[in-house]
Amino acid sequence: MNGNPSTNNPSVSPGEVPGAIHKDPDVVIFGFWVFMMSDLIFFGVVFAIYITMIGATAGGPGPRELFDFGSLFAQTMLLLTSSLTVGIATVTMKHQRSQASFLFWVVVTLILGLGFLALELYDFSEMAAKGGVPQRSGYLSAFFGLVPLHGLHVSFGCLWMLVLIAQIWKVGMLDIIKLRFLRLALFWHFLDLIWIGIFSVVYFGGWVYG
Amino acid sequence: MIDYGWLGKLNWDSLVFSKLISNPSVSEVVASTAGCIVIIATIVILGLLTWFRVWGTLWSEWLTSTDHKRIGIMYIVFALVMMTRGLLEGMVMRAQQAAAPDGFLYADHFAQLFSTHGTIMIFFVAVPFVVGLVNFAMPLQIGARDVAFPVLNQISLAVTVSSGVLLMVSLVVGEFSTGGWTAYPPYTGGDFNPGVGPDYWVWAIVFSGAGTTLTGINFTVTILKCRAAGMKFFRMPMFCWTVLCSSILMIFAMPPLSVAALMLGFDRYLDFHFFTNDLGGNMMNYANLFWLFGHPEVYLLVLPAYGVFSEVFSTFSAKRLYGYKSLVFATMSIAVLSFTVWLHHFFTMGQSPTINIVFGIATMLIAVPTGVKVYDWMATMYRGRIRFTTPMIYAIGFLILFVIGGLSGVILANPTVDFQVHNTLFLVAHFHNVLIPGVLFGLLAGYNYWFPKAFGFRLNDRLGRWSAFLWMLGFMLTFLPLYGAGLLGMPRRSFSYMDLTFKPYMVVAFIGAMVILCALITIVLQLYVSLRDRDKNRVPVGDPWDGRSLEWSIPAPAPSYNFAELPRVTDRDEFTEAKEQGRAYQPPKIYRDIEVPKNNPLGFILCLVTGILMFALVWYIWWLALVSALAVIISVIVSTYRWDSERVIPASQVRGDVEKWLKQVKKSRAIGRDLENTPANVGYAKLEH
């Protein structure tokens, strides 16, 4: 991801709109970058709490009893692939391909995202079956404060996709919808990055130091 | 999560009045009176709005408005209402401590008072007042039509107000937290505090904090992306620089607070163990998170006040701001350093001396850029033609009093001293000494300074000066004795004491609190008198103070589109330059249609439903919480179906406005600075040197 993706972005037509600053794609996309920066701090703080809580298992189950790396590998693949498909959707939009092919890639992304969520929920239920519930220890509280926070973001992204699909269905690819999709794509890549952090710090780090 | 039935924990005994009936005492009379005031004030306001038939105007001009100026004004009105409550609470506390050891409040009631007082004064007075002033002035100063995201702006206001209303509701239904504004667990956790008090705190903080974060994003993007042509960074008025730094602080500092409050909520609601005593919880995490927010927060508040003072010193000394670049760098340094000192809020909580020393030195370092600023402001006044108007009196009072507060901060920054005076009234005196002369004086100076631009008439200067002097006197009487009592060892937050050595200090402080109340009354009186005499004090031309920056180059009150033609900036003091070169008061070359954001009901709807959501969460009314949470999501989704968010102001209307204004300019008499507080001042300043 380069610093500012919008400056020469042919998928939206900036145009001269005197005075209407909030319509300027550059401003809108930049605003979203700033939002993600703030969200990153939010995640960063929760990561920090998790790190301080590694080992605070209070006699309850820890990483080695609870983590299922097979399922985690599958989740990672689903999410990384969805980042690829959302990228393809962006390129399709950029090159003015048909609306159908664009929608196809968005729907694929949505399905991958939902698959990720399903596997994550399955993992949580497996953990709960082994006594790994947040009420058990500080460590598990920190785990369930962080990983589902990412899951909640992914669910929010899925809802966003559903709304966009419905809107494209209704009014077609307006510029404003293209802008919304660009931000969604950014958000989706951002969640991928967070997931890589979760995989490395929460799961691997927890496994090694827990 | 226990099931409590349809109304959750709510029942008749939750009402404040039922406690008065079951246990008649002075403490409960005070609580019930406060509850009554809230109810009666609400009924009176609703009644007056209906009587004068202004609901329609209120809805179309204010509640649904996306205009940054109106949103700013609503923020300030909200802040003033909350300030009245916070100040009255301060009075009651001072009375209690002055009356001790024969106080009239229960210990728990006193604890609620200091908890709400702190929470309100920081989150619902200082923050919204700052955000309101910035909203009003910053887009005008950078030559923009609005903030970058007008609807987001509305949403920020909505959640701030609904959280504030939640605090008002806590006066009538249930009780507030007794854990102080910092709400340290495990005391505020479910084990020790199972009541609704800390829940009120948690949700008010989570929602208003989210609003402030969004505001920070909005302001940052506005300054970075929406400046007028030619407005380079180093041509921005000083106020905009301080706003930029403070907005960046909002983006980085609010998330730790939201995380801390949410985690506390998880501990309380879902039995998590983030901060509990047992099962691996760690309350030090809370202290670190809270102050990782809390320290940048004070700079977030005081930097824009520094910005206001910079404008005021330069305008009322009729001089260019001295050391502009050094002020910019000092502001930036303060913003960065503010993230390196949070640990000084808990020197005594068990770190090694080495760590304490590191944070102590970092804290003392902040005095350096602040000192630079103080000298810059003094140098700005040096050989200037100073006029002692209300904003200037606040500014000079700030210079003197704030230096005392800053120095007591340097004393506290030394861990060995801090061990002696921590948790005493010395600390209370210190932070009031920086927050009142620093933040509040700045905000009140800004209120007096920009009021004519907002409403088209000047505030009464005589009463303004009265209120400024009363604030200073009241502040000194109330808080300077607390330094003494603190050094004698009187703990903060004591609802009573046995050692009568403290008594004289407390009595003087109480008298001071009465003076502060008079200062508040004078502000109300000033508003009333100014409204009454508004026709004598109108400044339609728009430049009552011989201003230097762009906001003074347009009519007062400012039109909804701000500038008929977006300005092209060539200098730091653009408007002064324009006046001197005869470029001011010119019609635009071509009149264009102007697009401004349409009104939007989203903010108002979110204010209602988030308010209901918070109330339902506090009282464990799960069905209502679910319904209102869904309502939040659905109303946001529905609002994304508005494809056209702009309305057009036709060029002909703009031309009409401008020509009317220019005609006014032509027939007005330019007046010198000495006459600026007389009815002769219609906002047309004579060129003077």
UniProtKB/TrEMBL annotation, chain A:
<feature type="transmembrane region" description="Helical">
    <location>
        <begin position="72"/>
        <end position="90"/>
    </location>
</feature>
<dbReference type="InterPro" id="IPR000298">
    <property type="entry name" value="Cyt_c_oxidase-like_su3"/>
</dbReference>
<dbReference type="InterPro" id="IPR024791">
    <property type="entry name" value="Cyt_c/ubiquinol_Oxase_su3"/>
</dbReference>
<keyword id="KW-0472">Membrane</keyword>
<comment type="similarity">
    <text>Belongs to the cytochrome c oxidase subunit 3 family.</text>
</comment>
<keyword id="KW-0812">Transmembrane</keyword>
<feature type="transmembrane region" description="Helical">
    <location>
        <begin position="27"/>
        <end position="52"/>
    </location>
</feature>
<feature type="transmembrane region" description="Helical">
    <location>
        <begin position="102"/>
        <end position="122"/>
    </location>
</feature>
<feature type="domain" description="Heme-copper oxidase subunit III family profile">
    <location>
        <begin position="30"/>
        <end position="207"/>
    </location>
</feature>
<dbReference type="InterPro" id="IPR035973">
    <property type="entry name" value="Cyt_c_oxidase_su3-like_sf"/>
</dbReference>
<keyword id="KW-1133">Transmembrane helix</keyword>
<dbReference type="InterPro" id="IPR013833">
    <property type="entry name" value="Cyt_c_oxidase_su3_a-hlx"/>
</dbReference>
<feature type="transmembrane region" description="Helical">
    <location>
        <begin position="142"/>
        <end position="165"/>
    </location>
</feature>
<protein>
    <submittedName>
        <fullName>Cytochrome c oxidase subunit 3</fullName>
    </submittedName>
</protein>
<feature type="transmembrane region" description="Helical">
    <location>
        <begin position="186"/>
        <end position="209"/>
    </location>
</feature>
<dbReference type="Pfam" id="PF00510">
    <property type="entry name" value="COX3"/>
</dbReference>
<keyword id="KW-1003">Cell membrane</keyword>
TrEMBL record, chain B:
<dbReference type="InterPro" id="IPR023615">
    <property type="entry name" value="Cyt_c_Oxase_su1_BS"/>
</dbReference>
<dbReference type="InterPro" id="IPR023616">
    <property type="entry name" value="Cyt_c_oxase-like_su1_dom"/>
</dbReference>
<feature type="transmembrane region" description="Helical">
    <location>
        <begin position="286"/>
        <end position="309"/>
    </location>
</feature>
<feature type="transmembrane region" description="Helical">
    <location>
        <begin position="505"/>
        <end position="529"/>
    </location>
</feature>
<feature type="transmembrane region" description="Helical">
    <location>
        <begin position="238"/>
        <end position="266"/>
    </location>
</feature>
<feature type="transmembrane region" description="Helical">
    <location>
        <begin position="355"/>
        <end position="372"/>
    </location>
</feature>
<feature type="transmembrane region" description="Helical">
    <location>
        <begin position="157"/>
        <end position="181"/>
    </location>
</feature>
<keyword id="KW-1133">Transmembrane helix</keyword>
<keyword id="KW-0479">Metal-binding</keyword>
<keyword id="KW-0249">Electron transport</keyword>
<dbReference type="InterPro" id="IPR036927">
    <property type="entry name" value="Cyt_c_oxase-like_su1_sf"/>
</dbReference>
<feature type="transmembrane region" description="Helical">
    <location>
        <begin position="73"/>
        <end position="93"/>
    </location>
</feature>
<feature type="transmembrane region" description="Helical">
    <location>
        <begin position="201"/>
        <end position="226"/>
    </location>
</feature>
<feature type="transmembrane region" description="Helical">
    <location>
        <begin position="113"/>
        <end position="136"/>
    </location>
</feature>
<dbReference type="InterPro" id="IPR000883">
    <property type="entry name" value="Cyt_C_Oxase_1"/>
</dbReference>
<keyword id="KW-0349">Heme</keyword>
<feature type="transmembrane region" description="Helical">
    <location>
        <begin position="602"/>
        <end position="620"/>
    </location>
</feature>
<keyword id="KW-0812">Transmembrane</keyword>
<keyword id="KW-1003">Cell membrane</keyword>
<keyword id="KW-0813">Transport</keyword>
<feature type="transmembrane region" description="Helical">
    <location>
        <begin position="29"/>
        <end position="52"/>
    </location>
</feature>
<feature type="transmembrane region" description="Helical">
    <location>
        <begin position="393"/>
        <end position="413"/>
    </location>
</feature>
